[in-house]
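Collaborator request, handled under Task 6.
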Amino acid sequence: MNTISLGASELRVTPIGLGTMTFGEQVSEPDAHAILDRAIERGVNFVDTAEMYSVPPRAETYGRTEAIIGHWLKARPGMRQRIVLASKVAGPSRDAPWIRAGAGMTAADIEASCHASLKRLQTEVIDLYQIHWPERQVPAFGRLYYDPAQEHSQTPIVEQLQALARLVQAGKVRQIGLSNETPYGVHEFVRLAEQLGLPRVASVQNCYCLINRSVDNALDESCHRLNVGLLAFSPLGAGLLTGKYDASGFTGPGAPVGRMSLYERQRKMRWGRPAALATARRYNQLARDHGLTPTQLALAFCYRSWRVASTLIGVTSLAHLDENLDAWNVQLSPELLAAVDAIRLEARDPAQ
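Structure tokens returned to the collaborator:
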């Protein structure tokens, strides 16, 4: 698998990256290590994690995923030089006071979180350090609209950039990125970096899948014009786009094991909306009608999009990993892509 430059940075990543938020919750440490080994064997060089993982987030599992990756790296001398390692500093508390209290994310918070992640990961440098979600009140995680009345941001973007710059200057971080950001946020981070000589964001990691194409509503233009790489997470829509919930729903008789069936918290989020599952079923049937599995259609849609620099796949088994990587070879006809767009025109983005 060839590598591509991530945005305007010198980082070179594979167009498929391994997301790890299931490690330590749905996936045991030995199984996580086996998944990591297989991904590297099959040519993936990009591993993404975050301080708040495992997911669903709990105080008991905070930082566990990074620790699992750290143990994996320690047991495999030389592996660190073979991978691009990404992690994230959590934004202000979202019902997770064990991460940090209050509505802000100070420079001290950013630096302390980075140092803690470095320790858990057992590495001296994080290749891509991302802000997991903005301190600003933005339409994300199922929130559809920006509401100025809910704006309580305490840390200006320039202060966040300056904190990240100190980490870069200290050799703790190579490149910086954003996540769950808006077009305004991406533009403002780039503008201030260029104006003040601070590190420029290499990437933005946002949800992108058939049932949430909100990226296509302006963020794609921002990324293209500013040369910021898009990292697409949840390409399978929390499992809805695999087809496994088509027959039973999330909790009906015979419901399969997965995030949506295991965790009530997940069903209360955007993925649990009736419209999200109904629309996913339409895409899944479209895939079958064209001789593909739902997983193949959903992943190929991201893999082949000009918008996406790297697609982050999250798996719970070696079989899932191989299925996701094998989908790299799937091509989608213009007719099938037109049918995909026709569904979106009617259903829009039910999991936004």
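The cover message to the collaborator said: "The two ends are 31 Å apart (CA to CA). The first strand starts at residue 4 and ends at 5. Please let us know whether this matches your experimental observations."
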